[in-house]
Amino acid sequence: MVPVLAIRDLEIRFRTGAGELHAVKRVSLEIGKGETLAIVGESGSGKSQTMLAALGLLAANGTVTGSAQLNGIELIGATQKRLDEFRGRKVAMIFQEPMTSLDPLYTIGAQLVKVLRRHKAISRAAAYEEAALLLDRVRIPDTATRLDSYPHEMSGGQRQRVMIAMALAHEPDLLVADEPTTALDVTIQAEILDLLAALQRELGMAIAFITHDLGLVRRFAKRVIVMRNGEIVETGSVADIFARPAHEYTKALLDAEPAGRKTPVASDAPLVLTANDIRVEYEILRGLFGRKKLTVKAVDGVSIALREGETLGLVGESGSGKSTLARAIVRLAPATGLVRFEDRDLQSLTKPEMRPIRKKMQMVFQDPYGSLSPRMSVGEIVSEGLRVHEPALTATQRDARAAAALEEVRLDPTWRRRFPHEFSGGQRQRIAIARAIVLRPKLVILDEPTSALDRTIQKAIVELLRDLQARHGLAYLFVSHDLATVRAMADRIAVMKDGKIVEEGAAETLLANPQADYTRRLLAAAFTGKLERVKGIEPSS
After folding, report:
1. How far is CA 9 from its chain centroid?
2. Looking at the chain, which residues constitute the CATH 3.40.50.300 domain(s)?
3. What does each of the 541 residues of the chain score in pLDDT, given as a tens digit?
4. CATH code 3.40.50.300 for 314-532
5. CB–CB of 16/61 below 8 Å?
6. Range 411-423 burial, b when 16+ CB lie within 10 A, else e
7. How far is CA 203 from CA 2, 53, 171, in A?
8. Main-chain phi, psi angles of 180, to 5 degrees
9. Phi and psi at residue 424, in whole multiples of 5°?
10. CA distances for 432 relative to 11, 242, 374, 385, 492, angstroms
11. Going by DSSP bridges, is the β-strand pair 5-16/206-211 parallel, antiparallel, or unpaired?
12. Which residues is 514 bridged to in the sheet?
């Protein structure tokens, strides 16, 4: 039987300012009808570039040789017109972040209609009817309303469902899913994989599932290819790879989940932060001409406390209020309630009075590239806060402090003359951490600091954060939807849903014996629940 996709001896090279980059080296693979092939590796391994090259979507500075056949028809070297006949109709692709793939200026319905009419000679009215059926197929409720919604009015999971609907508009033979769940909460990940499995059964399509998360591979695919530095280092059934990995790199990936447990904090450690009855409310306009006001309680009467050297893990799905609470604590979001930091009432302080306090309360965000100025060198970024909070320091002293901070996060201090784009995602996150600790804070709020990183990098960042905490007695508020990482980081865990804390307790106790149904659902999705048995697909192990 002719495979749906057959790649033979694929080579990819990029022209760069530093010379030629050999990105993919003699890669060969096949995907059969109705099969899910997982392509696994860290960022830069070549897994996404392999599929982009096969579909004629390589960047302008790239060249490709070898063969990529779709249903026996060669794509490498095909004309743009020929490729356009296949893309969207015979092969489709969905990406990691749907918000960047959807046009913010057009409604969901208008974008679906455009996709449908590209390969079908149907009227606009007929296309809208079909668009509604597509949204229903990907399990988006209230399709009539959602067709008139803009991307920003939908959740991350709903936007990803829209991208799946677009990809399946013409019922392709091959779906390329490039990290389709990485940016989503564990429960939403389960729903998206469940949906893809059901649609695969319905349409009989092949799926190329690109990911760095071996946990998802184990639960979704039957066969896996492991890539490193542009080469395939191991291939086989998922069951064999997980039971008997042959390559050291595969073993490292399998062992990459954050491990170990944090050393418990003393029960009499001094309190750094107490927050009582914190409330954050927003008013949004609804109805015709926006005449109806609706009050949204983003944080609804939450109280927490943190001791020196302690980590509180704050977990919950997107929209639960966890990040809003974190911003409210440092007065980056309007809130009511009492926040005391080192026995000072923050809510009563003016902006000038808050400035010296902010030196001791630092934040690290999810996307280090978005939070680092591309126009500043790493040394300037790390020492920027010193200009504000320690103006008496000379330029030489600031530079020395920046170098010391980079050493603390295990980066070469001589790299401080470089710029953020010259670093990997993990290195950029270390730079963001260095920027926080250079001010010698007491409290660091970590807002999803590892969720955008590969598992091996996540593990290294967790180990670094634990080391810095032990060395400096830092208190961490660790906001995350990744329970495996929270388990390795936290003394206590607070679970948020709809702006409220539904359960709180010692990390090991809560994870071993959750009391709230919502907590049990999060744990099931993260460790042993829906992701262990996606409907209709038996676990490979």
Report:
1. 32
2. 5-254, 314-532
3. 789 999 999 999 998 777 888 999 999 999 999 999 999 988 788 999 999 999 999 888 899 999 999 999 999 999 988 898 888 889 999 887 777 778 888 999 999 999 998 888 889 999 999 999 999 888 888 887 789 888 888 877 788 889 989 998 888 999 999 888 876 777 777 888 888 898 899 889 999 999 887 778 887 899 999 999 999 999 999 999 999 999 999 998 888 777 778 888 988 999 999 999 999 988 765 554 455 667 778 899 999 999 999 999 999 887 788 989 999 999 988 899 999 999 899 988 998 899 899 999 999 987 776 778 888 999 999 999 999 999 999 999 999 999 999 999 999 999 999 888 888 778 889 999 999 999 999 999 999 888 777 778 888 899 999 999 999 999 999 998 888 889 999 999 999 998 999 999 999 999 999 999 999 888 887 764 333 333 333 333 3
4. yes
5. yes
6. bebebbeeebeeb
7. 18, 25, 7
8. -75, -10
9. -75, 170
10. 35, 34, 13, 12, 25
11. unpaired
12. none
pTM (two decimals) = 0.75
Structure tokens at 520: 């049990």
Separation between Cα atoms, residue 95 and residue 191, nearest integer Å: 16
**Phi–psi pair at 295, nearest 5 degrees:** -90, 125
State which fold the 5-254 domain adopts.
Rossmann fold (3.40.50)
Residue 189 corresponds to which tokens in the numbers above?
Answer: 């990940």
User: Tokens 């307790």 — which residue?
Assistant: 505
Query: Assign residue 77 a region: left if phi > 0, alpha if psi is -120 to 50, beta otherwise?
Result: left
Amino acid at 337: G
Sheet holding 336-341, edge to edge: 292-307, 271-286, 336-341, 344-345
